[in-house]
Amino acid sequence: MVDFLRYKWLYLIISFTVISTGIFSIFRWGYHYSIDFIGGSNIVYQVNKKIDLNKTINYLKNKNIKLTYYAYNNNQLTLKLSPIDESQETKLRQDLNKQFKLSIKILKFETVGPVIGQETINKTMIASLFAILGILIYMSFAFKGTNYAVSAVLATLHDFFVIVGIYSLLSRFFGAEVDTLFVTAVLTTMTFSTHDTIVIFDKIREYLKEKGRGSAEYYANRAVTETMVRSINNSMTILFMLLALTLLGGTTIRFFSLTLLIGTITGTYSSPFVATPILVWLEKRKK
Hints:
Radius of gyration: 24 Å
CATH superfamily of the largest domain: Multidrug efflux transporter AcrB transmembrane domain
Structural class: alpha+beta
Helix content: over 70%
CATH topology of the largest domain: Multidrug efflux transporter AcrB transmembrane fold
Largest sheet: 4 strands, antiparallel
Shape: elongated
CATH architecture of the largest domain: Up-down Bundle
Number of strands: 6
């Protein structure tokens, strides 16, 4: 048996460092939001020849078009701007055709109004609260004690702050956008973390039933030791798949799979090294 809880202060320092760095990034730089959340139009044009991006953008700005993002790659011009309708998009395309003598083919055009964007934010917050509340209620009934539930929820919140903090850094340095795929990845990793936590907590409860009340720290170390190989093996199969998607997948799902990858790592870490020490601490306080 390995005395994992002996290093609980090290785990605290690691978690505090990662979370505080992420929180600093959130307040300092924030996020890049997709049109799902802030509203706007997303347009992708295929052009028949190479263009000067700076001249194109300056031309659009001179026509009072408010751009929030633009990129040019492989003869594809990507524009994100304030919400416009189909007639305005048609006029924009015609103006670009006339000004730069281009042949433009529209590959993508989608518009989300600001009201829908605000509704998406509200639904995201409600979904997150329901997820946390559901975990709290389920754990309370399953383990017949609030200490287990509180420990699991705190570990889940730990994972949440790690993911949103690191994603802020990805948004700042790599242009990752907060979109509905990001929300899906966050909620998915929250459940994955809780799954691993339940396995460890179930072992601790099993020892308590068999041997009666005893040292919570001893039973916790024993449970973590016996489930560690299983947790690592389970996580590695997921990590290899997500790593392949992150490195070789398309740009559409790259940050989605990267978020899942981060969530899987922090979820595997938090179950034995965050949730379990918190449970031991709460059980000792109860005595």
